[in-house]
Design brief:
Blueprint: H1 28-53, H2 57-85, H3 90-116, H4 120-143, H5 148-168, H6 176-194, H7 204-235, H8 241-259, H9 270-301, H10 309-335, H11 339-353, H12 360-390
Transmembrane segments: 60-82, 94-115, 121-142, 154-171, 177-194, 214-234, 240-260, 272-292, 312-330, 337-355, 361-378
Region (Disordered): 1-22
Keywords: Membrane, Transmembrane, Transmembrane helix
């Protein structure tokens, strides 16, 4: 008797998913994966907030970018793999849960990385995640003859680089930075090399949905971090923070609007797919850093930060500018035209000038509202032009 289709097997051959599969949506396992990853994102943003407030700017930036690379790269590789080979059998679920455990180990190691420069715990969590993915690539190589060469390249490349990460822990501290940069480049090259024999069958629309969902999760973390910081101040009797809370809320709403203003163009050919996928590192890291920067502004308002008002302003302005410029490169320039294309880099520049004034957070909120208003007006103009062309009467 054949097994009912509703019963999930312990194992099924890892066949490729169809790139044109209709109604492809994120699965509960993928959503759970994202939810657990936000713990690591929150740890990175919280430690960035405290380091900036303590005027440890260079230390804060370098360690934040390094930690966030480990978080983002692990998330991204699972996301693209799952888009191509999600079998949803028990073995696949177990391997994914191991990767989630690795993400939690990374999150546990974030404070030590910021305070002591000790990346050993993060490295162990990173390797756990990546080796679990190697197992998945080996399954893909066995179940998908058409893409076997690419799957093997992934498995070999990831394994070699993980050995490098473990060996880095034994190197003298003076070699640490050079080894770190070399290994990051090696990690980034693995997909570029592995996909050359023929791109694995990831689903374009599914990928854009997954990236959009992770953007929402990171924005949610910004809301939580800012809310907690302001609540602490209000509980201490500082009622002036209400206006700062309003400006912070406007900034978060505007970032959401600008990212999701129009349907996101799905990546296609390999070169643009790499640029699009890798470029989101800057978007995710910038959004999380906005939350840290807004928390720094609350600390400064409460006279708890050991930095100037201008530095606190730049803690918000720099990630906003990075976000705007990256969205402009990846989305706006390819999909829009006219004043909107010019406005994004102009607003990014004005955001960087805002900390020179007396109320930078409020100024940046106003700039983002103006940019959102322009995108609305320009979209209505485009709709009106299209209606005129299709219906001359």
């Amino acid at each position: 008797m054949s097994q009912p289709r509703s019963v999930r097997p312990f194992y099924r051959p890892m066949r490729p998913r169809r790139r044109d599969e209709p109604h492809r949506a994120a699965t509960p396992l993928e959503l759970f994966f994202d939810l657990c990853f936000v713990v690591a994102v929150s740890q990175a943003a919280t430690n960035l907030h405290h380091a900036v407030s303590e005027d440890q700017l260079v230390h804060a930036l370098t360690r934040y970018l390094t930690v966030f690379f480990a978080i983002w790269w692990s998330w991204m590789n699972f996301t693209w793999f799952a888009s191509a080979y999600d079998t949803d059998d028990d073995l696949y679920r177990i391997a994914t849960l191991v990767q989630i455990a690795g993400a939690l180990i990374i999150a546990a190691g974030v404070p030590r990385a910021f305070t002591d420069g000790d990346f050993s715990v993060i490295t162990y969590g990173y390797v756990v995640m990546r080796i679990a993915l190697v197992v998945q690539w080996c399954r893909a190589a066995a179940g998908d003859p058409a893409h076997r060469q690419a799957a093997r390249r992934y498995a070999i490349g990831v394994t070699v680089v993980q050995l490098g990460w473990l060996l880095r822990l034994a190197l003298p501290p003076s070699w640490g930075t050079a080894a770190l940069l070399l290994l990051i480049v090696a990690d980034l090259l693995v997909p570029a090399v592995a996909e050359r024999p023929g791109m694995t069958p990831w689903h374009p629309r599914h990928i854009t949905e997954r990236y959009g969902l992770f953007t929402l999760i990171v924005l949610g973390d910004v809301v939580l971090a800012t809310s907690v910081a302001i609540q602490t101040g209000v509980d201490a009797g500082d009622r002036q923070l209400w206006s700062l809370a309003a400006a912070a809320t406007v900034i978060v709403f505007a970032l959401w609007w600008l990212y999701f203003d129009r349907p996101i163009e799905a990546p296609g050919r390999l070169p643009y797919s790499l640029v699009w996928g890798y470029g989101h590192y800057l978007i995710f890291a910038a959004v999380a850093a906005v939350g840290a920067g807004l928390s720094v502004s609350v600390d400064h308002e409460r006279h708890l930060a050991h930095i100037s008002g201008r530095t606190a302003g730049y803690a918000v302005a720099v990630p906003i500018a990075v976000f705007l410029l990256t969205v402009w490169v990846l989305h706006v320039r390819r999909q829009q035209h006219g004043a909107v294309v010019v406005a994004f880099p102009v607003v990014a520049l004005l955001a960087l000038l805002a900390p020179l004034g007396p109320a930078p957070v409020y100024a940046m909120a106003a700039l983002l509202v103006a940019l959102v208003a322009l995108t609305i007006l320009w979209r209505r103009r485009d709709v009106g032009s299209s209606a005129t062309v299709t219906d001359p009467a």
